[in-house]
Amino acid sequence: MEIKFTKMHGLGNDYIYFDCIDNPALIANPEAVAAQLSDRHFAIGGDGIVLILPHEEADFRMRMFNSDGSEAEMCGNAIRCVAKYLCDNNYLPGNNVDIYTGAGILSIEISRNAAGEFTSARVDMGEPILHGLYIPVNIDKETIIAEPLTLNNGTEYAVTCVSMGNPHAVIFVDEITDEQILIDGAEIEINPLFPSKINVEFVKIISQDAVEMRVWERGAGETLACGTGASAVTVACVLNKLTSRKITVHLLGGDLNIEWGDNNHVYMTGPATTAFTGTVEIS
User: Is 87 a catalytic residue?
Assistant: First the structure.
């Protein structure tokens, strides 16, 4: 069966999007489809797939599946792309939309240019979860700040853990290296301390208002950007008294503007881009 798709990315964090609004059962086995189509050598290629669906309690629903087939709760870059898709395909008459995700219903404010075209989205990412057991981390503390974590090779890191609907371990370093991301990040993801595995961010502080970040994403490996990760990093920076509450996060794919508001909500602002559209044969 041939199915239409749209390839989109948020700062290089790329997914294959399927419009399931009129047919929620369009993709019968999304886990297998994600693993099949994400291969960058033998298929379309991407960090996974995203299904755009109807929902009774929100305007729309987003389901996302990583390149290994596992379902993830949320992705900040993906939800901006969903907002752009809805704008581009005339699903949205206005500039506000509520989207149901695995992290709950998130509200998005869309910016358009003079021609009415999507330019960026500001996402209310909700309140960070800081209690260890609810992130989840196998540590019963109100906050997990600079907690020692020793790897198999003896390397010790101080991890600050935050959930933005999905779990993150944030590590502050003087310089970010490939070894940290590709070797240590992969080991930390599956450390028994994290019962649902975990996303791992390595962060270099640039100033009170800016940081650099690279991310090892749970179920996908290193990606060029991560919106929930950038949000978790901002919270971790404030908890460790390293930055202000409103910062620019420099990722490999570009910049995100993140603010941890006084109302305890985290707000993420950034772009979304359509790469190409097409059809694909799904068995």
Answer: no
Tell me: pLDDT of 93 over 90: no
Judged by DSSP in three states, 216 sits in strand
Which of 20, 75, 87, 161 is an active site residue?
Answer: 75
Q: Candidates 3.10.310.10, 1.10.579.10, 3.30.160.270, 3.40.350.10; correct CATH number of 132-264?
A: 3.10.310.10
- Enter the pTM of the model: 0.93
Percent of the chain with pLDDT over 90: 99
Give catalytic status of residue 75 as yes or no: yes
Domain 2-126+270-281 belongs to what topology? Diaminopimelate Epimerase; Chain A, domain 1 (3.10.310)
Q: Which of 20, 81, 87, 226 is catalytic?
A: 226
pLDDT of residue 283: 73
Q: What is the mean pLDDT of the chain?
A: 97
Distance CA(71)–CA(236), nearest Å, equals 25
Q: Where are the domains of the chain?
A: 2-126+270-281, 132-264
Question: Percentage helix, strand, coil, to 5, in the chain?
Answer: 15, 45, 40
Ordered alpha helix ranges (H), 57-183: 76-88, 178-179
